[in-house]
Description:
By secondary structure, this protein is of the alpha+beta class. The protein has one domain (2-294): Pnp Oxidase, Chain A (Roll). It contains seven helices and 17 strands. The chain has helices spanning 7-15, 19-25, 35-41, 90-96, 168-175, 223-230, 259-262, and strands at 46-52, 58-64, 70-74, 77-80, 99-106, 111-121, 127-137, 144-147, 159-163, 179-185, 191-197, 204-207, 210-215, 233-239, 246-256, 270-283, 290-294. Strands 9, 10, 11, 12, 13, 14, 15 and 16 form an eight-stranded antiparallel beta sheet that branches. The protein is globular, with a radius of gyration of 18 Å.
Amino acid sequence: xxxxxxxxxxxxxxxxxxxxxxxxxxxxxxxxxxxxxxxxxxxxxxxxxxxxxxxxxxxxxxxxxxxxxxxxxxxxxxxxxxxxxxxxxxxxxxxxxxxxxxxxxxxxxxxxxxxxxxxxxxxxxxxxxxxxxxxxxxxxxxxxxxxxxxxxxxxxxxxxxxxxxxxxxxxxxxxxxxxxxxxxxxxxxxxxxxxxxxxxxxxxxxxxxxxxxxxxxxxxxxxxxxxxxxxxxxxxxxxxxxxxxxxxxxxxxxxxxxxxxxxxxxxxxxxxxxxxxxxxxxxxxxxxxxxxxxxxxxxxxxxxx
Length: 305
């Protein structure tokens, strides 16, 4: 089933010496939603959506709702009864380009499911998705969190701030983050959303425009890095799980293969350098909140925070 991989993914798999594992893992990729995934999807409260704007920039957005806000209409159709906040690029992006990458993740059970396909908002402002690829990922690097039953607290009015750099406050947030989400796009325009996790400090803030983060051992499919190999456009999302704020970054990424640079990040097999083009900070982007329980046992120990 190597035909499920595009040229960028195949190149990175070869460079990493992971062709055999990638072929084996490709068997998990389906075109439709498996019956066993229906209950999982319809009991979740958080979904990440990656989309593309008019400038071919990728954005990652967060959608949340009470369990049941995701509904499986049939094996190739998913309806999401939730809209992003008013300033989020997702609605406009899908009106221009319906390519979409989704990640549905359960922090408490450390389960994640990726769905790639197309999407549009219908007349009831529900997001309707047609699937092209559906597959699960391993539980590695997912920090265990439990959903608060009634949200965090009564939300204040939403507000936002746009910039072309990372403020000191954003940099501090990123330095202490243990989780982020990343959207990427192939040279053919297909979009993907993924999760990245590690011990606090695993994302290095180089300066007000630049981040570097490690690529740890994973499923060897290299969907994200394969996209970056052929198309640098990426969208990174940080979520404040305590207070419901979000930080969306769109920009360009490149893979670092230099052993000397990689050695500075414990357990990293590769690195990714991300250059910020635009940052969008939104207060109170979701009413949902999560209690931290424990770090993933897979997280490498860092040298310093």
